[in-house]
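Incident log, structure service

09:12 report received: a user says their structure output differs between two submissions of the same chain.
09:20 pulled the input from the user's history:
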Amino acid sequence: MRGILLKKSHIILLGMLILGVILMSGCSAKAAEKGNTVQVEYTGKLTDGTVFDSSVGQDPLEFTVGAGQMIAGFDRAVLGMKVGESKTVTIPAADAYGPSRADLITIINLTELPEGLTPTVGQQLQGVRQDGSIATYTITAVTNTTATVDANSPLAGKDLVFEIKLISIK
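09:34 re-ran on a clean worker, output below:
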């Protein structure tokens, strides 16, 4: 049997061709799709630049894309991102925490508050909703006899800006 003899230059060329194929296959990195579990690093800001939350310097945030675990605009922003990619997106209130709802603002008598509690504006309280779920209420006004409490998210009615970096796709 006769073997095939390759010149040294042919071997080098063949090696470069194989290496090129391997490198090119890495260029088409997988993009985040619905159903993927991803890890992201993020910073959330109001449109005036005020930071309200960040995972930078902490463990990345992990969630399943499209599972309803995140606000809709954030979920959509991650779709199509590749590992290592960063982007900044502005999410309108409707795709974030929604509008501020008047039906979630209530005036209560101070006698309904826990005994010994002195309510102050900005103070947060927890209570049980009629459906049994836990709600966080922020005191927005206090008089001699009443307190106004707001169960809206503090971010309701606000457009949000997120800086997002995709760390991994599982």
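09:41 both user submissions now match this output. Likely a transient worker issue. Closing.
09:42 reviewer note: Strands lie at 37-46, 51-54, 61-64, 86-91, 105-109, 124-128, 134-142, 146-150, 160-169. DSSP finds two helices and nine strands in the chain.
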